[in-house]
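In this supplementary section we document a worked example of the pipeline. Step one takes a protein sequence of length 708 as its only input; no multiple sequence alignment statistics are reported here. Step two produces a three-dimensional model, which step three serialises into structure tokens for compact storage. The input and output of this example are shown verbatim.
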Amino acid sequence: MRAIAVLCLLLWWPMPGCAQARIDLDHDWRFRTDAADAGVRAGWADATPPDTRAIDVPHTWNIGRDDDYEGVAWYFKRFVIPASLLSSHIELHFGATFYRSRVWVNGVEVGGHEGGHTAYGFDVGPRLHAGENRIAVRLDNRPGMATIPGYAMRQAASGNVWYDWWHYGGIVRDVWLTAHDQALIRRQRIATRLGGGAADIDTQVFVENVDRNDGRYRVTARIIDPDGKTVAQAQADIDARAGQSASVALHANLPHPQLWNIGDGRLYQWVTELQAADGTVLDSRSDTFGVRDIAIRDRRLYVNGKPVRLSGLTRHEDSPWEGLAESVGTIRRDWLDIAALHTTLTRPVHYPQNDAVLDFADRHGILLVPEIPVWQFSEAQLKSPKLLALAQDMMREMIEQDGNHASIFAWSVCNESDASTPGGRAYVDAMASLIRRIDPGRYVTFADADISIRPWKDAPVMHDVDFIMANAYFGSWSGGGGDVEGWLDFMDRAYPDKMVIISEFGYPGVFSPDAASADKARSENLVQQMDAFQRRSFIGGVIFWTYQDYKSHRNLWPGQTEGYVDHGVVDENRQRRPSYFVYEARNRPLSVTTQWRVDKDGLRGFQATVSGYASTHLPSYPMQGYVAHWRAMDDRGHELAHGEKPLVDLAQPVRFEGAWQAAGKDAAVHLMVDVISPEGVRAGGVTSDYHPLNIGSAHFLPDGNKQP
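The serialised model returned by step three reads:
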């Protein structure tokens, strides 16, 4: 096992002319729980205890025999460092650990972190030596009054103050070392501005001198367009005192840029190199970004100047096989399915997301409103200076880590908490002030449930945010399904200058006697509620709760204390329910119709019409660069013909024809038409079946359009 660590190190050792390295540490860890919290006193930081088990990270202990274990657990790792690396500045990085960590290297505590979903790291070079080294990590997943997530004290009267998802403790994302000489790029912040057919790109590059001497460096950058061509360059010199940080601003202009759009995530790369005075590349960093303009005007959401109305589903980072410690494969599989459900907007859930989620949203043109997990907190919690400081740290970490993602257009500061109280409003305003200072180009909001529960009343805090996010469960928690109409009238009167996004709606299974009847009610509810939302132009988007069932101590069937919440269009194992197909059909962004072409010799082809929806429809958004693919089969399964039609712009209906040699007067034909987005996602289509019935010399033409 130790040989693997050495090999990995050597594979990542920097090439000549470059002074940086990344070393993977995901493999060959040891793990054990510490129910008595005796590990520190017993010296586990210095020596691995008995009864550990071998694991790789990412890992969570809350699957299998430690399913509901709440408390302290430890991770241990041995790895080898060659003497030649010790002159470099070496840092130990964690992609995320849940929840509170303490970290030791070779028996010396190097730091800790609170929060379960953002990355952090420590300077560990002084603690390393040539040969074998050791990491020990103590983690604690217990919630408290001032942890985030923590006890949901709004629910104190219920006797159950657990938050509404599982407490997956562990090293839940990657672990790695970095090694640098002289200086490194800590991060870069990219901002874009459209105007006059061009884009201005301004980037702040944050450099840290890790040397003992003052340094002067050159920062060079280039922009690579979505087609892989370098289209702009910039450079600047920067001075940094020994052991200190500095930043430099770079600017570039892009004439006639390719725009990032809904369903069409065109991404540029900003590639930065940090060079020493002799030209040695000390560090490099590449971030993707999108050139787009997102604005809220007159209670409508606009992307690149065009009005949009969007829809999507939320998804917990949760599965029976990985929990929160998700692999890229699980993430990609789920999000491809979510994209197939025509998702163009989501929160995506209550906590900062894995990079793979954000990258997927970037590349598929999905708008996101990320959130920190302040869930159902009371006014007393929101007024706590300790909790506010932790929330601000979490928000700052999330923004600094994820702020260049093109998919993010707003940040959310809490969910279903006592934001309408004086103390809650002060919390929201303090968080909004922080966000507007460190990321002024994005909107600020929070998700509220009180707003949809009678008696409806104006909440002053709603006027402090850029748009309203409302959790509206009409048909269950918020009231009867028909009550949505009166509530929407109230929202129109109370907030005449605010766009509203329905941040949660759906049907929880616990309101029905069994899963089958729950899903039937879920299907009926989602169509009825979406039709009501569609009739109100100030509803800019809707987000269905939720994609999959997820593990929880709350909202379960009677008699259960733990289990999977019946709330998804797929179950925890990703098996599709009938509501999946109802949701997919209701959220298609376009329609396709076909008409048969028949002459005296029989069926000769078809004519198809592809139409986008008007901007009043929910969902609706501009669609450019889509392609229609069609295929015709005879009744023996043999292909008659196939083809495709580029749909340059669906602002107006597009008609096209397909034809083939006559298959005979009595032949049946099966026609399939699929419309595919620029990102390869099926946006809609039809199947049509032709079964001729001859009466004399006349053909009977069936009405064959079916939208699968």
